[in-house]
Design brief:
Elements: H1 2-21, H2 27-44, H3 51-75, H4 85-102, H5 107-119, H6 123-136, H7 141-153, H8 158-171, H9 176-202, H10 214-217, H11 220-232, H12 236-246, H13 253-266, H14 271-284, H15 295-319, H16 323-338, H17 344-363, H18 369-381, H19 385-398, H20 403-415, H21 421-431, H22 438-451, H23 454-467, H24 470-488, H25 490-500, H26 508-519, H27 526-540, H28 545-557, H29 566-576, H30 581-593
Family: Belongs to the UTP6 family.
Organism: Malurus cyaneus samueli
Subcellular location: Nucleus, Nucleolus
Length: 597
């Protein structure tokens, strides 16, 4: 092993001598490089190889390359690159090859090698990396796409890119993304050939042996890809994705027409098809030239386009009366309403249309729960508060067991300061199952704190502890403790704490809150703090290291503390803590002893 390392270090000598000779490095720096290289070489020549050692070695060489690049720029020296950089690049490629050969499944390692090749323009080496990587990771479509994209965009070889896509499709015959990118590549190839032909014609050059097929120029290869994909991949999403790619190229009108016809024929009952056809009406008008037109005319044209869009949606909800279809319609209306416009008339039209669509969807009982919330929010924003109350009530009738819907209705009533808030809370609790009612109870007590008397609020807190599930009652206990301290003082909160401790479960924050309250008192007693810590440790002593450390700190720093108790607390912590928490506790305790925590 030593002979091999010595040989590799000797191989470095010519490049290092060149670095010194041209003034990029000093002799002292050359020696430091050799020492570092020697240490790194020994690490990658061991029997038990570690990936981190290879990564560190590669990173060191990359940093060295970057340093040489900066120093060349600083002194303006650009010669001897073959003798210096080339040998370092070859060494990095060799290290990457060894690492990827050893850890073949590490995709990130392969991608690091790809990134390195791109950064240092190693095209020939990158071609080899892609070839080897795809042979091993042929099950990852994203890697095939990356390789094909590089062939097309960097090497300008559409033939190689096509070959890669065809190979990839043998492994993944039903991958939508592969077909989409293959389709895009063929259109890019056609566009490239069209530009070349146009430049030749403008220069009045004889095309001679350059034979440009009209079929390829018109995107016939992309059409073949599309038809092949359509037979294997079903679903409107793929059709729309391909159509959006085709629209990026100005010579694909016939192809777009074919995709649209296929979309309308095969997926006439899909809401996404109707959604696309309706939104298309918004774009059709905007394709016309709009120069020398007044603002009023632009507003009028926009209003007409939106009318046509809504006409298609109206037809859609009659043909496909589903929740998803109404959702598409309403989403489009909301998007149009939220668009900025200086025309108050257009803004009002959009609002009226949106509210009308919400009402129609509600009447057909096909309005999704989430959209009721958006409807109510829109009504509140436009000061239609009475209508908002009606809609919120209707929503709770449709979704009587939904906590979110009841919460929305209650928030509306609270915001409007209505008198029927309490009856509404009672109705909500009656309809919703006990599990999941925590948001309602927290909203109720928060509202009560600012509205009702202390007695009523306390009674509500007591009721919530019994009405919620044990897991949810934990939050209510914390809120109850905090409210009692703010409104009743220390003695009352201490009494409540003792009372609440009789019924599990608890949260750590519940105990920490009581500890904090005790610390805020002028006559903070260590006796009480010990009681709270002991109670907390009974519940969380086996899973929380910080609790033990805080207890120890309290004994050390409190005027009434007993530092001699720290030993027994440490011993108990070592016994109670589980698994890796013991080591965590030991390290933190050591830091505490040395004054670093």
């Amino acid at each position: 092993m030593a002979e091999r390392i010595e040989q590799r270090l000797e191989d470095r000598i010519p490049e290092l001598e060149q670095l010194e000779r041209v003034g990029l490095f000093t002799r002292k720096e050359i020696r430091a490089v050799l020492r570092k290289a020697s240490a790194l070489e020994y690490k990658i020549q061991r029997r038990a190889l570690r990936k981190e050692d290879f990564i560190n070695y590669i990173q060191y060489e990359v940093n060295l390359l970057e340093l040489i690049k900066k120093r060349r720029a600083r002194i303006g020296y650009s010669f001897k690159k073959d003798e210096i950089e080339h040998s370092i690049l070859q060494r990095v490629h060799s290290l990457f090859n060894r690492a990827t050969g050893k850890w073949k499944d590490d995709v990130q390692l392969w991608l690091s090698h790809v990134a390195f090749c791109k950064q240092w323009n190693s095209k020939h080496q990158l071609s080899k990396v892609f070839s080897t990587m795809l042979a091993i990771h042929s099950n990852k479509p994203a890697l095939w796409i990356m390789a094909a994209k590089w062939e097309m965009e960097t090497r300008l070889s559409s033939e190689s890119a096509r070959h890669l896509f065809l190979r990839a499709l043998r492994f993944h015959p039903e991958c939508p993304k592969l077909y989409q990118e293959y389709f895009r590549m063929e259109l890019m190839h056609a566009e490239k050939q069209r530009k070349e032909k146009k430049e030749f014609e403008q220069a009045k050059m004889d095309l001679g042996e350059f034979n440009y097929s009209e079929e390829i120029l018109n995107g016939e290869m992309a059409r073949i890809v599309y038809r092949e994909a359509s037979q294997k991949i079903k679903g409107v999403e793929f059709q729309l994705a391909v159509l959006s790619i085709a629209k990026l190229f100005d010579f694909t009108q016939d192809l777009q027409k074919e995709i649209l016809e296929s979309l309308q024929t095969k997926y006439a009952d899909d809401p996404l098809t109707w959604d696309y056809m309706a939104r298309r009406e918004l774009e059709l008008g905007s394709l016309q030239p709009t120069e020398n037109t007044t603002k009023q005319k632009k507003v009028s044209e926009m209003a007409q386009r939106e009318e046509r869009c809504c006409a298609v949606f109206d037809e859609a909800v009659r043909a496909v009366p589903t929740e998803d279809m109404w959702k598409c319609y309403i989403t489009c209306c909301l998007e149009r309403y939220n668009r900025k416009t200086n025309s108050e008339e257009l803004k009002q039209k959009r609002l009226e249309r949106t509210l009308s669509v919400f009402s129609k969807a509600h009447e057909t009982s096909l309005l999704p729960e989430a959209l009721y919330q958006q409807w109510v929010q829109l009504l509140m924003d436009t000061n239609l508060s009475e209508k908002a109350v009606e809609v919120a009530e209707a929503a709770t009738r449709h979704f009587s067991q939904s906590v979110e819907t009841w919460q929305m209705r209650l928030q509306v009533l609270i915001q409007l300061e209505r008198d029927d808030v309490t009856p509404c809370f009672e109705e909500a609790i009656k309809h919703v199952k006990s599990k999941g009612t925590l948001p309602l109870w927290t909203l109720w007590v928060e509202w009560s704190e600012g509205t009702n008397s202390k007695e009523d609020t306390e009674a509500l807190y007591q009721r919530s502890l019994h009405a919620t599930t044990p897991a949810e009652s934990v939050t209510m206990k914390e809120m109850y403790l905090d409210w009692t301290y703010r409104n009743g003082g220390y003695k009352k909160v201490k009494k409540l704490f003792t009372s609440l401790c009789e019924n599990r479960p608890f949260s750590l924050d519940f105990f920490r809150k009581m500890i904090q309250i005790e610390k805020e008192q002028e006559s903070c007693k260590m006796l009480h703090l010990r009681e709270y810590y002991e109670r907390a440790l009974r519940e969380f002593g086996s899973t929380n290291t910080d609790l033990w450390l805080d207890y120890i700190k309290e004994e050390l720093n409190h005027p009434q503390g007993k530092p001699e108790n720290c030993g027994s607390i440490h011993w108990r912590a070592m016994k109670m803590l589980q698994g890796d928490l013991v080591e965590d506790f030991i390290s933190k305790y050591t830091l505490l002893q040395t004054g670093h925590l």
